[in-house]
Amino acid sequence: MIITGDEEYFEDIGKIAFEGKDSDNPLAFKYYDAEKVIAGKKLKDHFKFAVAYWHSFGGKGTDPFGTATQNFPWDNSKDPTNAAKAKADAAFEFITKMGFEYYCFHDFDLIQEAETLAESERRLQEISAYLKEKQEASGVKVLWGTANCFSHPRYMNGAATNPDFKVLAHAAAQVKVALDTTIALDGENYVFWGGREGYMSLLNTNMKRELDHMGKFLGLARDYARMQGFTGTFFIEPKPMEPSKHQYDFDAATVIGFLREYGLEKDFKLNIEVNHATLAQHTFQHELQVAANANMFGSIDANRGDYQNGWDTDQFPNNLYEVTEAMLVFLEAGGLQGGGINFDAKIRRNSTDLEDLFIAHIGGADIFARALIAADQILSSSSYLKLRKQRYASFDTLQGQDFEHGKLSMRELYEIALSQDKIQPTSGKQEFFENIINQYL
């Protein structure tokens, strides 16, 4: 069911249909058939695609060197409430026409922040009631909510890690209201992205104290949400730097260690972003595997970076090889735990037509669908798993197996090494593995 307000913003575009890979219609899915079953589950259930409210309906094409280039029709009102309702009308029309079932948001994506905390809360309650009506009419749901505790000047030195208690208290109040909003909208999860939780210089930073504060802050937020009946998962989104020089949620391994140190690992999992992974000098698939190893593979921010730029460009995903490798990890891990795949991506500054929003999301969904289909075929039909298992065959029997089971001491390993013949290097067959991927794309 397509839900609109009084005005239809995308009147020349109907519901996006699946037409198959031979279609030349730019406004049709080529690979994403929502009902298609792969590895025992429908594609729509594997992915739970979500539209990012901030990029798709709040982004205007600005960058550090220029003002807005995208003047979309829902941006015309100066009144905060009317503007928020127009944005919601556009968002739900777009989401339902795309055939997606979820969206995600920061608190002040939904409506403009006010001068006071109390008025901001009132505004969020008002727009939440409007959004709830649209959700009930359309079946669209909230994948996750979060709070923007990084844009306002008060957060220039951080939020939960700010050296000024007044700022920390304000951040706590803002997160409390964002949690209330997420709960009111039946949000399935809640994300913490520490946009400025880090430091620019250690000279003026007590790192240990700031990390302790952040651990305590997250625990208090969790406890509050649970007392309100929230049963969803909390996610931490790793990012190494930008805007801070060094952020405390640097990468998946850093976040996992932090969660375990502060006793948060039972309630929190990771929301992995492609572009953040590459900024940390990792691959996307590496970060997914680290999260999966720790049983914290929660959700995905789907995008990509520009490989020639050193910042977070948030482009729509289009690297089939990269995403296929990631989907191998995805399937072997059993999929996401609680979350979905949100397109934390924005159309380019020089993409200024309304249809560009559709084309970008269609391409992103097709890339993930095509990659998952290929990954499933690789796992079920190729020699990939067998070859990888063979690399570790020496640990499956005899002394190698004894080592894995903790039956050998350091002295015994020493004795074994003394008795061994000359070791012959064994090929890792890297090109063979790469060619298997190519064969199924």
UniProtKB/TrEMBL annotation:
Q: Name one GO molecular function term.
A: xylose isomerase activity
Locate the residues binding Mg(2+) 1.
Answer: 237, 273, 301, 344
Q: Read off the InterPro entries from this record.
A: Xyl_isomerase-like_sf (IPR036237), Xylose_isom_bac (IPR013452), Xylose_isomerase (IPR001998)
Enzyme class, broadest EC rank: isomerase
Q: Which reaction does it catalyse?
A: alpha-D-xylose = alpha-D-xylulofuranose
Where along this sequence does the record place binding of Mg(2+) 2? Answer: 273, 276, 312, 314
Cofactor(s), names only, from the UniProt record: Mg(2+)
- Location in or out of the cell: Cytoplasm
Query: What's its EC?
Result: 5.3.1.5
NCBIfam families this protein is in?
PRK05474.1 (NF003998), xylose_isom_A (TIGR02630)
Quaternary structure (record): Homotetramer.
What name has this protein been given in UniProt?
A: Xylose isomerase
Query: Which gene produces this protein?
Result: xylA
